[in-house]
TrEMBL record:
UniProt keyword terms in alphabetical order: Oxidoreductase
Protein name in the entry: NAD-dependent succinate-semialdehyde dehydrogenase
Domain Aldehyde dehydrogenase: 13-467
Gene3D superfamilies the record matches: Aldehyde Dehydrogenase, Chain A, domain 1, Aldehyde Dehydrogenase, Chain A, domain 2
Superkingdom of the source species: Bacteria
Family statement drawn from the similarity comment of this UniProt entry: Belongs to the aldehyde dehydrogenase family.
UniProt feature coiled coil, ranges: none
Annotated CDD domains: ALDH_F5_SSADH_GabD (cd07103)
Residues that span the membrane, as ranges: none
Organism (species): Halobacillus kuroshimensis
Length: 471
């Protein structure tokens, strides 16, 4: 597959392969773009922006709606590409295409609701007008765990706001991104409005981040890289949105509905084999129900079908690469060696050389174990118990991260007060899948800056202009 710059498909002499994590086969090769292509893309995006910023909201909405329709028509094809490059089960991949597309339809409508303000002035011969204008050229750097949704979550609001976009998808999963951009061109995106480049991440991002014409960085990925890119963005004072790592606590109170809690645990933990930034990572369960919860969860986990994502029955596919499997194994071994008990699963892949790790439950874990301190990014449920709810919340907050938290209780008063006490950007109360296009997604603390989705998500791509009008 080729990259897309200025509406043209571009090849380069050097390419790199994209592997299928289920069998290690090469799915396709993509261009290894460098400085030259990165600069060309900025030129194109900047040129395109000059025209796009003058379009009406109706025109922008019409383009997004055409793109939405094409993506919908190509759902099966896109889902297959995604499963092949990423490994997630086909049914999840189809779900992700629908979810990714929901950002496009939602922001097609939201484009028309970018309102300004008039504010009463202190002098009779003055008027205060507040307008919203697009921020300019946007650089979007995305991870491999949601090859479609992480693109549309940034591109749809940016385009709706009147910006142009440069995309650098993750090297493991560039194919879905490229196909999405091809469909955008087919839907009538003007040349240069949406560009996608594959190649060395640092080389490409250095060109984009040092160029003053790029006015905004929207990044999803690790906290470490997010901090680095934020520093580089400071040089030209770019606006930044960062959606970084999580360490989601999953708190189950004594009065919780256990069936809801188990369903929520499976939904929040095992999506994409545990490789999402809002995956529950630390389970705090009240001591009076910890055994019952663990037993029910064990039954639910053992019913999950592991295997090739292309098999329509598969619930859990392979992890993205060997490094991801090694990390999961290390977390399980560390916990086991410090006294945790393996209830089901374990730290070895289901067969030699496979990247499929069995879904695992650990009990009797404690705060000293790596799995309670670092994001595992794999199918592991570490369970600890508590007696005091306030202490559980304190433990849940005891991390530099603050993206998503989950709370299970039937007591609505506790649901609200404890949600307010949790230092997290997203709290799922009796809900293991809180993400939605119309809701603001983002983190507190070292989980990032800014929000994606909802009315907040388009603000990230808008500047506020104050016009003081003397009459
Ligand atoms: P993950 O742990 O999800 O792979 P990363 O932060 O490593 O997260 O990667 C997220 C995105 O950031 C990918 O597109 C990757 O290519 C890009 N990236 C990684 N390192 C750098 C870097 N030093 N400079 C710019 N982009 C980077």
């Amino acid at each position: 597959m080729n990259i897309v710059i200025d509406g043209e498909q571009i090849q380069t002499d050097k390419t790199f392969p994209v592997y299928n994590p289920i069998n290690g086969e090469i799915v396709a090769s993509v261009p290894d773009a460098g400085e030259k292509e990165a600069k060309q893309a900025v030129e194109a995006a900047h040129r395109s922006y000059q025209a796009w910023k003058k379009t009406t909201a109706d025109e922008r909405a019409a383009f997004l709606t055409r793109w939405f329709q094409l993506i919908e028509e190509h759902t099966d094809e896109l889902a297959e590409i995604m499963t092949k490059e990423q490994g997630k089960p086909l049914k999840e991949a189809k779900g992700e295409i629908g979810y990714a597309n929901s950002y496009i339809s939602w922001y097609a409508a939201e484009a028309k609701r970018v309102y300004g303000q008039t504010i009463p002035a202190s002098k009779p011969d003055k008027r205060i007008l507040v307008q919203k204008q697009p921020v300019g050229v946007v650089a979007a750097i995305t991870p491999w765990n949601f090859p479609a949704a992480m693109i549309t979550r940034k591109v749809a609001p940016a385009i709706a706001a009147g910006c142009s976009v440069l995309i650098k998808p993750a090297e493991d999963t560039p194919l879905t991104a490229i196909r999405l951009v091809e469909l955008a061109i087919e839907a009538g995106a003007p040349a240069g409005l949406i560009n996608v480049l594959t190649g060395d991440a640092e080389t490409i991002s250095d060109v984009w981040l040092s160029d003053a014409r790029v006015r905004k960085l929207s990044f999803t990925g690790s906290t470490e890289v997010g901090k680095l890119l934020m520093k580089k963005s400071a040089e030209t004072m770019k606006r930044v949105s960062l959606e970084l790592g999580g360490q989601a606590p999953f708190v189950v109170l004594a009065d919780a509905d256990l069936d809801k809690a188990v369903a929520g645990a499976v939904a929040s933990k095992f999506r994409n084999a545990g490789q999402t930034c809002i995956c529950s990572n630390r389970f705090f369960v009240h001591e009076s129900i910890v055994d019952a919860f663990t037993d029910k969860l064990k039954a639910a986990v053992e019913a999950l079908k592991v295997g090739d994502g292309m098999d329509p029955d598969t619930d859990i596919g392979p992890l993205i690469n060997q490094g991801a499997c090694d990390k999961v194994a290390r977390h399980i071994e560390d916990a086991h060696s410090r006294g945790a008990e393996i209830v089901t699963g374990g730290g070895t892949p289901i067969s030699k050389g496979s990247l499929i790790m069995p879904p695992t439950i650990l009990k009797n874990v404690d705060e000293s174990m790596i799995c309670m301190k670092e994001e595992t990014f794999g199918p592991v449920v570490p369970i600890t118990s508590f007696s005091d709810e306030e202490e559980a919340v304190q433990q849940a907050n005891n991390t530099p991260f603050g993206l998503a938290a989950y709370l299970f209780t039937e007591n609505m008063s506790k649901a609200l007060t404890l949600s307010e006490a949790l230092e997290y950007g997203i709290v799922g109360v009796n809900d293991g899948s809180p993400s939605a296009a119309q809701a603001p997604f983002g983190g507190f603390k070292e989980s990032g800056l800014g929000r994606e989705g909802g009315p907040q998500g388009i603000e990230e791509y808008l500047e506020t202009k104050y016009i003081s009008l003397g009459l």
